[in-house]
Write a structure and sequence with these properties.
Helices cover 29% and strands 26% of the residues. By secondary structure, the protein is an alpha/beta fold. The strands form three sheets. Strands 3-2-1-4-5-6-7 form a seven-stranded mixed beta sheet. β5, α4 and β6 form a beta-alpha-beta unit.
Length: 373
C-alpha cells in the first residue's frame, strides 16, 4: 500500500500509523461511527487535525552503535529502524533529531543493546513548545555518561539554540519501561512553557502533556465554552496533569482544585497558577478516586480526564450518588467511557465531540458534557 505521505510506511519499515493508508476524511468518519456506536450522545461534527507535522513529542528508541546510531523504533527482529525524518513530528523536532544523532557520537553515548543488556542510552525524548523551544531528555541505564553529557552540552546548545531544558532520566531496569523515577536536571531552566488556549502552562520533564498541541488547544477551548453558561462556583479537575482543564476554567472567585498522582505535574501546575495570579486555584498530589471519596461535599462541576482504563467503578459510583450537577469527561477510549457512563445513569450526555488527537491511527480524544437528569 503506497500513501506518498511517508516513505517509511510505504517501505514497510514502520506501520505505527496503521490508518495512514486510509483517506483522511474516511478516518474521521470511521472514528465518529465507532464512538457513536458506543456512546449515545448528541455528537457534534469531529474536529480535524493536520495529518502530518502535528506531534510535539518524539519518543525515540536509540539503537545501533555510537558511530552509527538509529533513533526511532525496533523492528520485530530487535534491530533499530531510524525514523529521524518521521513526518508526524514538528519540523523543529525533525531538525533536532539530526543534531542529537551527532551528539550521540560526540559524547560517546553507547546505545543500549537489549539482547546483550549492555550500553547506556535507551531513549531520547524531545518535546517542542508552541514557541519552538525544546526540551531534551536522555534516558540512561546509569549515571556513567552524565559527566560526558554535561561536558558537551554547551556545544549541543550552540548547535541547537532552541534547546532550553535538558535532563537525564535514569531507567536502570531491563524491561519495557520508557523512563524511570529519577531525573537529573542539566540546565538551569527546568520547565518548558506551553502557550495554549490563552494559558502559559509549565511542563516539567516528567509531566504529561497532549502530544498534539493544536488539538489540545481545541480541547481546552471547548471545555471553556461548554461550561461558561453553567457558571460553577467550585470545580474539581481530577487526573489534572499539568492543570490544563483547571486553569482553563479558572475565574475570579471560582474555587478550583486539581488532583493528580504525579508530583512533577502538580509542581508544574502550581507554578503556572502562581505566575498567573490565581489564588483560588490549588493543586494536590494524590489519587483522584480517594480524593473524591474522602471529601465532605461535591463541587458544582467535576472534570475527569483519566488514562485509557477510564475512571473505574468506585469513582463512577461516587459521581452517580454525589449529587454533582455536571461532569465534563475527556476520554481517549470510548469503550471505557461507555462502561463508566453505564455506571452513572443519572448523568446523561448532553453534548459530545470527537477531536482527532491522533491522526492516522484508530485513537482519538472525545469530550462529553454530562448533566444530572
Amino acid at each position: 500500500m503506497t500513501t506518498t505521505l511517508c516513505h517509511n510506511f510505504d517501505a514497510g519499515r514502520c506501520r505505527s500509523c496503521s490508518w495512514l493508508g486510509l483517506p483522511y476524511d474516511v478516518q474521521l468518519v470511521d472514528k465518529q461511527r465507532q464512538v457513536a456506536e458506543l456512546v449515545d450522545a448528541p455528537w457534534e461534527p469531529p474536529v480535524a487535525s493536520a495529518q502530518l507535522g502535528f506531534r510535539n513529542k518524539a519518543k525515540m528508541v536509540v539503537s545501533g552503535s555510537v558511530d552509527d546510531p538509529t533513533l526511532g523504533i525496533l523492528n520485530p527482529a530487535g534491530a533499530g529502524v531510524d525514523l529521524r525524518d518521521c513526518p508526524l513530528h514538528t519540523a523543529g523536532i525533525r531538525a533536532a533529531l539530526a543534531v542529537l544523532a551527532d551528539f550521540v557520537r560526540t559524547a560517546a553515548l553507547t546505545p543500549y543493546d537489549i539482547p546483550a543488556r549492555r550500553g547506556e542510552l535507551k531513549h531520547l525524548l524531545v518535546t517542542e513548545s508552541p514557541d519552538g523551544e525544546l526540551m531534551v531528555r536522555f534516558v540512561l541505564r546509569s549515571q556513567e555518561p552524565v559527566a560526558r553529557i554535561r561536558k558537551h552540552l554547551p556545544a549541543l546548545r550552540d548547535a541547537l539554540p532552541a534547546l532550553v531544558v535538558a535532563s537525564v532520566n535514569l531507567q536502570p531496569e531491563h524491561k519495557a519501561v520508557l523512563e524511570g523515577d529519577h531525573e537529573i536536571a542539566l540546565t538551569e531552566q527546568e520547565t518548558l512553557l506551553m502557550r495554549v488556549a490563552g494559558m502559559e502552562l509549565h511542563l516539567r520533564p516528567q509531566s504529561f502533556f497532549q502530544t498534539n498541541t493544536a488539538m489540545a488547544t481545541e480541547l481546552y477551548e471547548r471545555a471553556r465554552a461548554w461550561t461558561a453558561e453553567l457558571a460553577p462556583a467550585s470545580v474539581w479537575d481530577l487526573y489534572c496533569g499539568v492543570g490544563g482543564f483547571a486553569l482553563t476554567l479558572a475565574r475570579p472567585g471560582v474555587s478550583v482544585t486539581g488532583i493528580e498522582v504525579s508530583r512533577e505535574a502538580v509542581a508544574s501546575a502550581s507554578l503556572t497558577a502562581t505566575e498567573a495570579g490565581l489564588p483560588d486555584v490549588r493543586f494536590e498530589a494524590g489519587d483522584a478516586t480517594a480524593y473524591a471519596l474522602g471529601s465532605a461535599a461535591p463541587p458544582d462541576l467535576v472534570v475527569v480526564n483519566p488514562p485509557r482504563r477510564g475512571i473505574g467503578p468506585e469513582l463512577s459510583g461516587w459521581l452517580e450518588t454525589s449529587g454533582v450537577g455536571h461532569v465534563l469527561y475527556s476520554s481517549c477510549n470510548a469503550v471505557t467511557l461507555a462502561k463508566d457512563l453505564a455506571a452513572m445513569p443519572s448523568l446523561r450526555p448532553v453534548r459530545g465531540q470527537l477531536l482527532d488527537m491522533f491522526p492516522n491511527t484508530g485513537h482519538y480524544e472525545v469530550l462529553t458534557l454530562l448533566q444530572r437528569r
